[in-house]
Amino acid sequence: MRTTVGIIGAGPAGLLLARLLHNAGIDSVVLESRDRAYVERRQRAGILEQGTADVLRAAGAGERMDREGLRHDGIELRFDRRRHRVDFPALTGGRSVMVYAQTEVCKDLIALQLAEGGPLLFEAEALAVEDAGTDAPRVRFRHEGREDVLECEYVVGCDGFWGVARKAIPDELTQVFERTYPFGWLGILADVPPSHDELVYARHDRGFALLSMRSPSVSRLYLQVPDGTDAGTWSDEAIWDELERRFETADDWRLERGPITQKSVTPMRSYVHEPMRHGRLFLAGDAAHIVPPTGAKGLNLAVGDVVTFARALTHRQETGSPELLDTYSETCLRRIWQAERFSYDMTTLLHRAPGATGFEDRIQLARLERIASSRAAETDLAEGYTGFSFE
Ligand code: FAD
Ligand code: DHB
C-alpha cells in the first residue's frame, strides 16, 4: 500500500488531519488500532476553543456542532463558598468557547472521511515507523491478521500518548519534559440536566470539583481523587455527596442528582517531547504532549498541530519550499508551552495537593481573589481559556 501521508491514529488529530489534507487535494491513509465503535464512544474532552470550532467549520465539519453544540460565554470560579463569573467576550474582545464533546467531533469526522476521503482502516495497528530519516518512510502495521507495509512520503504520528510513532525518534535527539501530579480526576456522566448553565470550577479544602455538561440533559462532573484511585470504590451516593460538599455556596444554589451512567479515573500529567519532527516523521497531539485536563487544552492543542502540518505540507506542494515543514516543531512548541503553562497554572490554582500547608491554601485563595478583583488577572485567565492563536 502506498500514499502521500501515512497517518497513525484516528483520534481528533488524525481524523482532522485526513480531512484537511483531503480538502487540499493531498491523499492520505489513516491506520487506527481500535474499532469504530470504541473510537466513537471514548469519553474525553468537552470544550472547543473558538479557534478549534472555526477550523472545524472551515473544514466542512462544523454543521452538527453549530446545531447541537452549546456556545459558552463564561465560566464560574467557586471558592470560599463564593461564586465569581468570568465573562469571556467582555474580556477578550468577543471570544467564547463551544461545549461539544470529543466523541461527537470524532463521529462527524469519521462520517466525512468514510463518505468523501481516503482509506480509514480500523483495527489496523501500526507496529513501527521505519526509515523516518529518509525520503521514503514506511509504517509496518497489522490488519485482519496480516502484516502489511504502508509506503509514504510523510508519516504523521497522531497515535496518542501510548502510540509507537514517538519511538522512531532516536533517544539521543530527544528531550522529554515531564511532571506528574499526586492526584487524578474521577469523571462521571449523569442523566440529569446540568445544575448551572456554565461550567463551574470549584476550589475546596477537600479538593477540586468541576461541573460540565454534554447536552442540556446530560451532566459531566469531575472530582479530584488521590492518584491511583479505583473508580469502583466510589458508590454513586458517595460521589454525589462529595460533589455537593465541594460545590457548596453561601447562597441557595443546589446540585441536582441523577443516574450515573459512566465512571472512570484519569491520571494527570504534563509532558512535552522535543522535537516533534525527525526527518519525514511528524508527531501531533497527545503523541507529543500531554497537559493535565484543567482548562481543557488537550484536544485544542492537537487541532493546532495538525493545522500547522497541513499548512506546511500544502506550502511545500504549492511552492516547493520545505521551510514551513522544517520549522513545524518550533512553531507548534511555542503554542504548546503556553498551553502547558496555562494548564499547570489552572491545576495548581484549583487542586489541593496531599499535605498542602495552610500557607499554600492561603496563597491559592489569594490568587483566586486576585482574579476576582483585578481585570488584568481575569483577562489573563480568559485569554488562556478561550485559546492561544494558531500561528
Ligand atoms: P488520541 O485521542 O489519544 O487518539 C490517538 C488514536 O491513536 C487513538 O484512537 C488510538 O486508538 C490510536 N492508536 C494508538 N496507538 C496506535 C497504533 N499503534 N496504531 C494505530 N492506532 C493507534 N482533554 C480535555 O481537553 N478535557 C478532558 O476532559 C480530557 N479528558 C481526557 C481523559 C482521558 C482518559 C485521556 C486519555 C485524555 C483526556 N483529554 C482531555 C485529552 C484529550 O482527550 C486529548 O488531548 C485528545 O484526545 C488528543 O487527541 P489525539 O488525536 O492526539 O490523541
Ligand atoms: C471538560 C473537561 C475539562 O478538562 C475542562 O476543563 C472542562 C470541561 C469536560 O469534559 O466537559
Offer a concise description of the structure.
The chain has helices at residues 12-23, 36-41, 50-58, 63-68, 88-92, 102-116, 236-246, 298-319, 323-326, 328-350, 358-373, 375-386; strands at residues 5-8, 28-31, 47-49, 70-72, 74-79, 82-87, 97-99, 120-121, 124-130, 138-143, 146-151, 154-157, 175-190, 199-203, 209-215, 218-226, 260-274, 277-278, 281-283, 289-290. With 391 residues, the chain is α+β, with helices and mostly antiparallel strands. An 8-stranded mixed β-sheet has the order 6-5-14-15-16-13-17-20.
Describe this structure in words.
With 391 residues, the protein is α+β, with helices and mostly antiparallel strands. It has two domains: 5-67 and 100-178 and 269-346, FAD/NAD(P)-binding domain; 180-268 and 352-386, D-Amino Acid Oxidase, Chain A, domain 2, CATH 3.30.9. The protein is 36% helix and 29% strand. The strands form four sheets. The protein has an eight-stranded mixed sheet. The chain has a six-stranded mixed sheet with strand order 8-2-1-12-19-18. Strands 3-7-4 form a three-stranded antiparallel sheet. The longest helix has 23 residues, at 328-350. The radius of gyration is 21 Å and the shape is globular. It starts with a strand and ends in a 5-residue tail after the last helix. 3,4-dihydroxybenzoic acid binds next to strand 15. This is p-hydroxybenzoate 3-monooxygenase.
Write the layout of secondary structure elements.
Elements: E1 5-8, H1 12-23, E2 28-31, H2 36-41, E3 47-49, H3 50-58, H4 63-68, E4 70-72, E5 74-79, E6 82-87, H5 88-92, E7 97-99, H6 102-116, E8 120-121, E9 124-130, E10 138-143, E11 146-151, E12 154-157, E13 175-190, E14 199-203, E15 209-215, E16 218-226, H7 236-246, E17 260-274, E18 277-278, E19 281-283, E20 289-290, H8 298-319, H9 323-326, H10 328-350, H11 358-373, H12 375-386
Parallel strand pairs: 1-2, 1-12, 2-8, 5-14, 12-19
Antiparallel strand pairs: 3-7, 4-7, 5-6, 9-10, 10-11, 13-16, 13-17, 14-15, 15-16, 17-20, 18-19
The structure holds flavin-adenine dinucleotide (FAD) and 3,4-dihydroxybenzoic acid.
The site of flavin-adenine dinucleotide (FAD) has 32 residues, from helix 1, strand 9 and helix 8.
Keywords: FAD, Flavoprotein, Monooxygenase, Oxidoreductase
Protein name: p-hydroxybenzoate 3-monooxygenase
Organism: Streptomyces caelestis
